[in-house]
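Model it.
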Amino acid sequence: MIACLYGRTCAAFVEPVARELCTAAEKLGGEIVPLTVERALEERARRPPESSGVRRVYVLPFDVPARLPAEAPDTPAALVRWLFPEAEVVNSFDAHEICWDKPALAERWLQRGVPVPDGLLTSSIEEATAFVEQHEWAILKASRSCGGHGHYVVTAAADGLVAEAHGQRYELELVPSGAPQQIRDRQLRYPAPFYLQRLVNDVGVRNRMKPGQLLRAHLVEGQIVFWIEPYRPHYRCPSDWIVTPSLGARYRFLFSVGEEARKVAMRAADVIGLRFGVIDVVRTSNEGVYVLAAYSDGHHMMIDREFKHLPEFRDAFDFDHFIAEALLAEPAPLTRPSPSEPAAARVEIKGREGRFGPAATPRKLGKPPQGPRRRQPPDAVHGRRRRGR
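Modeled.
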């Protein structure tokens, strides 16, 4: 049996995807059974786990139940292994966790030579401010999030840093760790640590600054099955440079993206052992391709499938059909080696952090921009000065 595992607390937004996977399997002549973690615990109490008949588990978001049997582990990965000791878990928890932890993901890619934009993880207010001033535009990111939530576009103004999100502009005050994040009277107090990434931008007609082209590769069994492009028809303010449909952007399907983007996306997925998921890359006319993020279905998050509502949607873009087909395939897909890093390769950050990489040899992420970048006034968007903000 193949189980699609999720939690009752997440059912409102997870069950539609679970149904899509089950329907796709039925059309293929197979079966995927929807199963909540809570139901799996009840069944395990009645019979030994070896008799469940579950040979593969596809994981969607769930919370570890508050009430567990005394012998049950209380972490997501260990709980699933305890419930289904003989089943193959898809995606692996190692791959899902590294996708969820953005600084660790960037560090992993950097160590393996995958091109990523310059980034910084630090608790130093001075270092964070200097990073923004150096790059003119940066994105202040929540370390663990998806869909652009908790992200701010940051730049330097005459009287300090400013941050923008959801079309709202704030005076940004970076504060030491331990303080709560707070918004009051157009002032954003943001506590350390600070995870910043250079905004990869391009220069269009009339020297108008615009974000690089964002491309999303959908992978099944480590192979790209199709591409989509998140985009905005217009960029009215800096916060629009966070191009994600959850914040108002749109999707369109692409039939060709070029060999460089394909190779970079495949390499990024291979480094983290991502079998089923998406890789986001960005490219510009003068800098080439960078990798921005990776997402997978799992207990923390779920891949956005809003593109299914587009009029242009066809079977060739049916992500859940491709997943179901791979899950039903025999023999079972080969498992990649665990992408976990050796202990010596990890970078433990204490106190005053440096750029990604060993603290003794700080270094920037990714390749430097090619050619000069035109400096934009802090309020300039698309070549015009914004007023009254």
